[in-house]
Design a protein that fits this description.
CATH class of the largest domain: Alpha Beta
EC number: 2.3.1.61
Number of domains: 3
Function: E2 component of the 2-oxoglutarate dehydrogenase (OGDH) complex which catalyzes the second step in the conversion of 2-oxoglutarate to succinyl-CoA and CO(2).
Pathway: Amino-acid degradation; L-lysine degradation via saccharopine pathway; glutaryl-CoA from L-lysine: step 6/6
Protein name: Dihydrolipoyllysine-residue succinyltransferase component of 2-oxoglutarate dehydrogenase complex
Largest sheet: 7 strands, mixed
Family: Belongs to the 2-oxoacid dehydrogenase family.
Structural class: alpha+beta
């Protein structure tokens, strides 16, 4: 059986073979995770469509066209015996010590969490293990595994690069100038020493090809600067009322909806109400026309291992806080397990990005074309502010709205951000 790169969307024509999950010569079962592909929009895990012994013909790191044959599953001598295993698997849930049936994404989730599937009782049809079963069996770790993106997005890569003070030894080697006055100038000259071809030059510079996702991100960022009139306006919000709301109703919310009440759902709700009053911030340009959207498809930026992705909450204006929180948690799980579909990322009329989870106090969020607005949330910081003539300490968050000045005037942008601020500082108004 030929293994081909599957089609993942009408606008996707090639994919990177990111990782083979099996090695050549290994036996593969149907529906077993086989390899991962990475396109300019999403990373996907592909499962085996049949059984057999794997033969890889295209290695990891190669970029190929959609539909390309990258390997085969060849029938082995033992395969007929294995073909009779499915009936046995159907009874597996009833036999202690055997692995119950489960989905490919469930297998990957079990591996990531260190859970042994055979030790978990499946609640699905026929004893099938569901993702909820695995999450419930996870040792004493709340399912708030969503912070996983934070360490990944913490970009360990810069640390090694920052460790490039390896040039420091260079001045000692380059301390060939005998004159003492040359010593101070030796430090600045350490930078030009980097390009020198020495025995250790290969260790000092690592060159890797850009992944399709990183290429796409780079192209879009440059395109935004060239094709929009992007400006940013700033404000700050007192988070006291929101924090009090979460403290008062957090336990009740979790007990009733089985999901935590976070900041993002409150901001999504505030933005939907503000967009209704400032429709130009929810619009886009198509040719010579401005298209106004009478719905709010809100993109929520989620940090992943391969970069930032922006899955979309469809018709968010019709969703309650619990629905929003469940949807966001679902997106985070999909990003972590590489099961995010292309349909999850398409569209969107407005975007919210929370740099505060990484500790950012102030930033300029960049537009996600063809949208005309993006809200940037930031870290909450206790600051001294004046209230009724008195200096008090309040938990404050800086807010930033980047907007396309071709559609949105300064008055509308400032008005929109002030409205969001009002809803955040008086959340009871938007919850009525």
């Amino acid at each position: 059986m030929e293994i081909k790169v599957p089609a993942v969307g009408e606008s996707v024509f090639e994919a990177l073979i990111a990782k083979w999950l099996k090695k050549s010569g290994e036996r593969v079962s149907r529906d077993e995770p086989l390899f991962e592909i990475e396109t300019d929009k999403v990373t996907l895990e592909v499962v085996a469509e049949g059984e057999g012994v794997l033969k890889i013909t295209v290695p990891e790191g190669e970029t190929v066209k959609i539909g390309t044959v990258i390997g085969t599953l060849e029938a082995g001598a033992e395969q007929p015996a294995q073909a009779q295993q499915p009936p046995a698997q159907a009874e597996a849930p009833a036999v202690p010590g055997q692995t119950p049936p489960m989905s490919p994404s469930g297998r990957k989730l079990a591996r990531e969490m260190g859970v042994e599937p055979k030790d978990v009782k499946g609640t699905g049809r026929g004893g099938r293990l569901t993702n909820d079963d695995l999450l419930a069996a996870r040792p004493a770790a709340p399912q708030v595994a969503q912070p996983a993106p934070a360490p990944q997005a913490a970009q360990p890569a810069p640390a090694p690069q920052a460790a490039q003070p390896a040039p420091a030894p260079r001045p000692a080697q380059a301390a060939q100038p005998a004159a003492a006055p040359a010593a101070p100038a030796a430090a600045p000259q350490a930078a030009p020493a980097l390009p020198q071809k020495g025995a250790d030059s290969a260790e000092r510079i690592v060159r890797k090809p850009m992944t399709p996702i990183r290429k796409r991100i780079a192209q879009r960022l440059v395109s935004v600067r060239q094709n929009t009139a992007m400006l940013t306006t700033f404000n700050e919000a007192d988070m006291s009322e929101v924090l009090a709301l979460r403290q008062k109703f957090g336990d009740y919310f979790l007990k009733r909806y089985q999901v935590k009440l976070g900041f993002m759902s409150i901001f999504v709700r505030a933005c939907c109400l503000a967009l209704a009053e400032f429709p130009e911030v929810n619009a886009s340009i198509e040719g010579d026309d401005i298209v106004y959207h009478n719905f709010c498809d809100i993109g929520v930026a989620v940090g992943g291992e391969k970069g930032l992705v922006v899955p979309v909450l469809r018709s968010a204006e019709t969703m309650g806080l619990a629905e929003i929180e469940r949807a966001i948690a679902g997106f985070a799980d999909k990003v972590r397990t590489n099961t995010l579909a292309l349909a999850d990322l398409e569209g969107g009329t407005f975007t919210i990005s929370n740099g505060g989870v990484y500790g950012s106090l102030l930033s300029t969020p960049i537009l996600n074309p063809p949208q005309s607005g993006v809200l940037g949330m930031h870290a909450i910081q206790e600051r001294a502010v004046v209230r009724d003539g008195q200096i008090v300490i309040r938990p404050m968050m800086n807010l930033a709205l980047s907007y396309d000045h071709r559609i949105v005037d300064g008055k509308g942008a400032v008005g929109f951000l002030k409205k969001v601020k009002e809803f955040i500082e008086g959340p009871e108004e938007m919850l009525l």
